[in-house]
Amino acid sequence: MLARLRRETQRTLLDLGPEVIFEAGHTILRQGDDSSHVVLLLSGSAKVQALSESGGPTLLGIRFGGDLVGEMAALERRARSATVTAGAHTRARLIKSSDFRRFLSEHADAAVAMVLMVNARLRWANRRRIDNANLSATKRVPRVLLEVVDTYGEQDSDGNWRIGPPLNHEELATLAGVRLRTVEKALRDLHEQDVLQRGYRSIIVTDLPRLREISDYSD
């Protein structure tokens, strides 16, 4: 969201609310709450989760600095549809819903940026549905890894790609729509092919072209 705005519009948005700090694991927004403020992430990362019918959390997506969360409740004036949790030390600004709606009405580039942001999230959700319906379980894991790296990966000095927030195997299984054992096998196979390295709650992609080839992915 923030990167899509003109510089003067960015400054206006950043002036709308106070800066706050969320430590890793802290709940930023809670599903079902009737609060309506918007949270603009400045740095760090966050996980967006919703409770399924069985009562367990389902990972819907991940967000980083520059992303906006809580905009649905602010615009629709309905209860929160998901819980957002800090995945790392995270700086953010809290913006009142009334101030945010007025900001959108006064800045056309911000309104366009909102549409583009929502479209990108819808594309992600649509790809997950299409992949879940058409790809084998073993193919969906590298596909999700690739999309996470393409969207949020950070390249280090060695040319490797690090996945920003720490994703555990259960969360990766949720994103890919597969069982936990399928994720574990897929990661083991990719490691044996020297496509990635695994650490404690960390994944480093060492061969991005090979991961793209395995995923049969082109965009």
Describe the structure.
- The structure is a single chain.
- The chain has 219 residues and is an alpha+beta fold.
- The chain folds into two domains: 2-127, Jelly Rolls (Sandwich), CATH 2.60.120; 136-215, Arc Repressor Mutant, subunit A (Orthogonal Bundle), CATH 1.10.10.
- Helix content is 44%, strand content 24%.
- The protein contains eight helices and twelve strands.
- The chain has a four-stranded antiparallel sheet. A four-stranded antiparallel sheet has the order 2-7-4-5. Strands 9-10-12-11 form a four-stranded antiparallel sheet.
- β9 and β10 (161-162) form a beta hairpin.
- The longest helix has 27 residues, at 108-134.
- The relative contact order is 0.14.
- The mean pLDDT is 90.
- One of its GO terms (cellular component) is cytosol.
